[in-house]
Sequence to fold (309 residues):
Amino acid sequence: MDQSSPNVLQRWLTGPRIGALPALAELPAPQLSFEFFPPKTEALESQLWSCIRRLEPLAPRFVSVTYGAGGSTQARTHATVARLVQETSLTPAAHLTCVGATREEVNAVAQGYWDAGVRHIVALRGDAPGGGTGYQPHPGGYAYAADLVEGLKRIAPFEISVAAYPEGHPTALSAEQDLDNLKRKIDAGATRAITQYFFDTEIFLRFLDRAHAAGITVPIVPGIMPVTNFAQAARFSAMSGASVPAWMGKLYEGLDEDAETRRMVSAVVAAEQVRLLQANGVDEFHFYTLNRPDLVYAIAHILGARPKA
Fold:
């Protein structure tokens, strides 16, 4: 795809699109899921639980809790997930990685989740500890996510989600190799793929076509990340391999000191991204909340999600 050519979202934001797509009111509310990260301090713990309680009434399909590099947040992740089971109506999914642990250690964590009532795992290879780029499998551990999926299936009949990369994993040798790796994870027993965030809708739709052509039939759920700090998002995207369209930078020009307007712009961009994907037959979305609930709640409301009794 020529990155200089405007995509559908850009044309809508920069020119008249009246009648081009179904009105929001004509589209059903999509299925939503939310991602949280475990707290590092008591203050952040309070912020996390305020976020959970704010979003809980929307009855998401599930909520996931991340796992730090090298399993650095293992105890906090487990405590958060266990509390979600005990104290909320939400269905939690615990992230679990291969990094820095033997198979026996990973299996023990998985068994602990099952015993705590957790039935959904997000199985990931994981990042090298300390932010390093040279991933090395633990000599006694699961080498890659596909191996982890196989191991989890031997422990218990977990529902398993895995990661997908519409623009390719940063360490993949090619887009084809990356798609082959996703297929191995699905063939090993994963029941869903959740994508890294992206901003160009056409990139996801083309990836979806390629995945279907490769024989991948499980749901591939788009990961949506509302952006309030554009400069920060651009830096992180450069490291993670997600492209940032030029039109997006223009939307945030002059807003460095105007957080409220940035949030309004973010709500419009994210809601329209979901709307365009819905118009192309996608009906489930995973929001990276960054433990900030109000923006995600507003976007969900725009999309038709309402609190359940």
Q: What stands out?
A: Residues 69 and 229 are 23 Å apart (CA to CA). The first strand starts at residue 31 and ends at 36.
